[in-house]
Write a structure and sequence with these properties.
Blueprint lengths: L4 E2 L5 H11 L6 H9 L7 H10 L4 E5 L12 E7 L2 E7 L4 H4 L1 H4 L2 E8 L8 H32 L5 H24 L5 H10 L3 H6 L12 H18 L6 H27 L4 H8 L1
Parallel strand pairs: 1-4
Antiparallel strand pairs: 2-5, 3-4, 3-5
């Protein structure tokens, strides 16, 4: 059994994460993606069952017929075998079998459902969550400190254009931090809403593409944080070293080539849009 596609055009690891979330579990996005997609049998159901085993979560994977649908625990994953494609589909409750007849009529009889009150918990996943929490605290402190420094530096500036430039640098840095967080597997509700407003799943698809791998171990997200950090630091020092602003403008002009390449890649190569990437291009 080898599901080729998944519910709502999501990948198998995303479907698994959504399903576990409905069960009250919250596997880390990056951990879930890495563990499932690197499984030797991916995208077969064994990639999911081994992931559940890794979280010490008891479950049942059975083959039955429609007479048993009220015996299952919900929500469950049903294996759908449509002509030309196989995939897993979330069934939230027993009544959905009739409500989603266009899908469930192709049910193969195979279902995966948890034992009652089962909990998924993994130590490595918990470590991922701890690191993300620390990252969120660090990012918050960094943004607040940067805002304070911007205000202090702006009071010393005499030119409105320079202050606007500094503000754009700060906004670019903030967006870059969110972009890096998304690349590492963390997405706040705000980021999800922003990305979803431009393209459903676009941010994640662009950041997972081969064009986002970068060079020499430095991803575009890493480079953008470095770029805007440097630009913002130069702005903070500009009241004392006036010529630094001229140097920054030169760097920004050179960076326009990268911005053009980013837009071209999203539009022509990937045909997906990343709202955060577009924000960085804008700033």
């Amino acid at each position: 059994m080898n599901p080729k596609k998944t519910q709502a055009a999501t990948e198998l690891w995303q479907l698994t994460q959504n399903w576990l979330s409905l069960l009250g579990n919250k596997p880390n996005t990056k951990f879930c993606r890495e563990e499932i997609t690197t499984h030797p049998d991916y995208p077969a159901m064994t990639a999911v069952t081994d992931f559940l085993d890794a979280g010490n979560m008891p479950y049942n994977a059975v083959q039955a017929d429609a007479s048993y649908i009220h015996e299952f625990n919900y929500p469950l994953l049903a294996h759908i075998n449509q002509p030309g494609q196989q995939y897993l589909h979330i069934i939230p409750n027993a009544t959905e079998w009739d409500k989603q007849k266009e899908i469930t009529q192709h049910w193969s009889g195979i279902v995966l459902f948890p034992v009652k009150n089962a909990v998924w918990q993994n130590e490595q996943n918990s470590n991922y969550e701890k690191e993300i929490f620390k990252g969120k605290i660090f990012a918050t402190v960094l943004i607040v400190a940067a805002l304070g420094l911007f205000i202090a530096s702006s009071l010393l500036q005499l030119k409105i254009a320079a202050i606007v430039f500094g503000l754009l640098s700060l906004l670019g840095l903030v967006i870059s931090i969110f972009l890096l967080g998304t690349e590492l597997g963390y997405q706040s509700q705000l980021v999800k809403q922003v990305c979803g407003a431009v393209s459903s799943g676009g941010c994640e698809k662009v950041l997972r593409s081969k064009y986002a791998k970068g060079m020499f171990g430095i991803s575009p997200a890493d480079a953008s944080v470095l770029y805007f950090s440097t630009q913002f630091i130069f702005y903070l020092l500009s009241p004392y070293f006036v010529n630094l602003l001229n140097f920054i403008l030169l760097i920004a002009f050179c960076g326009s080539a990268i911005a053009i390449w980013s837009v071209y890649t999203q539009a022509a190569k990937l045909k997906q849009w990343c709202a955060l990437c577009l924000g960085i291009v804008l700033f």
